[in-house]
# Entry
Amino acid sequence: MLIEFKVANFRSFHDEQTFTFVASKQDTSHPENLIPLEDGVDLLKSAAIYGPNASGKSNLIKAMWAMEGFVLRSATKMSLGDLIRRMAPFRLDSQSQDEPSQLEITVLLDGNTYIYGFSATTDRVHEEWLYVRLAGKRISKWIDRTYDASTGETSWKCLGELKKEEKLLRKRTRDNGLAFSRGAELNVEALEPLYRWFKRNFWLHDLSKSPMFIVQTTARRAKEDKNFRSFVEALMSDADTGISGLNVQEQPALKARPKNMPENLYAALKDFIGDEDATSYAVSTKHYISDTDATVEFDLVDDESNGTQRLFALAWPIFSALEDGDLLVIDELDCSMHPLLTRKIVELFNSEEANKKGAQLLFVTHDSSIMDSNILRRDQIWLTEKRQDGSTDLYSLFDIKSPRKNEALEKNYLSGKYGAIPIFGPVFEDLEFTLEEESVE
# Structure
């Protein structure tokens, strides 16, 4: 489970900003939205991020994406001299442009707390640290790595469970690689739980982009797993899509391009698959013909709406998160989907019946209808606002003293009471549009 995530000097984030799933003790509403822990701390099951365009909402997700990607690619997909992808410092300050971006995550796994982070530029890692508190024990630092730019030397300390691995990690870790990732690749047992969480239990999706890659994963799972297939069919049916069933068929992966798939996306798909003999999956949806008991099949990609395609794509991440207690992070959750459907997905994660494993949902949205005290607590609503220097300020609605219980959150947000709304200029504010009456002869 995610406890908190910190980011500094990354894209629009200049000063360090912290997102946390730790619930406030002062807010006693919606206890069903909480994951209680043994030490008396509660974690939130879901959180929404709001804010105007270009305020940094998506940059928080990109920061998580950058961390996840570097952790998983560092040891197995990168070589000496490769650039570290996605490292992007705050560029509206002359001093920060050449400074490293800094990312840190705190995760709770099987009673053990891991605080892992690093700072890096595109060419090298500058710092890397890992603190661990094993259940019933004190917190200890396992990795302490620091690069000194003045000498060009890197100091190393591996302590605790990694003390005996220091020489190995120092020898096998590149300047542009992570010791944590290298240790996991070398089967250092103490690092496996956290690395496995990054690889298997941390889902990141941007629904503003084509969902075709996720569609293929969902289709394969539906073909192989009857229980999951039943979940998908129930999800699609209960969402009022008119779909009564699914038909999933294997096919050559590189057959003719679907008519609704852009050429560049099809080229990327072929490059991603690589193997000419690889298998892909064609999905058709079943609909009842109104005046008979017969059904007709629609092609998911060619015939169904964008919203239906995205809901199908999300079925596997949602199912897996609820089944295994995963973290699901979604940018633009409301993209092409009705507000009531978005609301139901949020309620699914907040549900005591559906979410019994501590699954968490973090999503970016412009859908203000979910900013409702009947659905979310104040500490589940986060806002991003652009400062005068162009940097992002991240805060929760609970950080603002004014909201009270049963306050009209959506109305007050749209009126600007909580900040984090666009400030329009003359083009939108000062122009008057009039409709001239047509003269009648």
Q: What stands out?
A: Residues 212-323 form one domain. The two ends are 73 Å apart (CA to CA).
